[in-house]
Amino acid sequence: MNLILLGPPGAGKGTQAERMVADLGLIQLSTGDMLRAAVAAGTDVGRQAKVIMDRGDLVPDEIVVGIIADRIEEPDCKNGFILDGFPRNTAQAKALDVMLTEKKLTLDAVLEIRVDDKILISRIEGRARESGGERSDDNAEILKKRLAVYHDQTAPLLPYYEAQNRLKVVDGMLSIDAVSKEIKKALNA
Ligand code: ADP
After folding, report:
1. pTM, whole model, 2 decimals?
2. How far apart are CA 161 and CA 2, in angstroms?
3. Which of 15, 31, 123 to mutate to test the pocket of ligand 1 (most atoms within 8 A of CB)?
4. Which residues are 169's β-sheet partners?
5. Summary mean pLDDT of the chain
6. 8-61, pLDDT tens digit by residue?
7. Is 172 near ligand 1, meaning CB less than 6 Å away?
């Protein structure tokens, strides 16, 4: 099974992806994790990506599309994968469609973990208050920026996948366990 997890920053995609890895035996492909690994390793891509990530913008499509194209070639992806954080805009979604067709792979479902903005913003501000200080205020601003980028660039993927009849919406405001159950239900439906 090949899946996409969509949802705003702070929706719990990473947590749910980890559980799906354990329960369904899928591989999690997180472009955020891959980019952070490149930053930590100090590669050219990492150096380029760091500045962009730090300000809450999206890194260029050719970088992430290239990373994913290479990664899904790996043998461990044969049993299925969860894309977490990719695609993040329409150009990436179209590049993914081409990639999957070329590799004769199918996309089984796109799961949207839906969380209201009000709740996300209060989570973001709560976390900033907990950690305190000026720097954390910056972090709250960056997170709000990332939320704006989500609405602007990533949310248009919802009607895109709806039109492909692949979109399944899950309530991300429930408990972690309840969200996992909803995901299972959506995948079995
Ligand atoms: P989240 O906290 O929402 O899970 P991620 O870890 O997925 O965030 O992503 C962190 C940052 O990495 C993003 O803000 C963006 O700068 C960059 N990034 C990750 N995936 C992509 C992508 N598919 N396209 C462009 N930039 C990306």
Report:
1. 0.91
2. 14
3. 31
4. 112
5. 93
6. 998 999 999 999 999 999 999 999 999 999 999 999 999 999 999 999 999 999
7. no
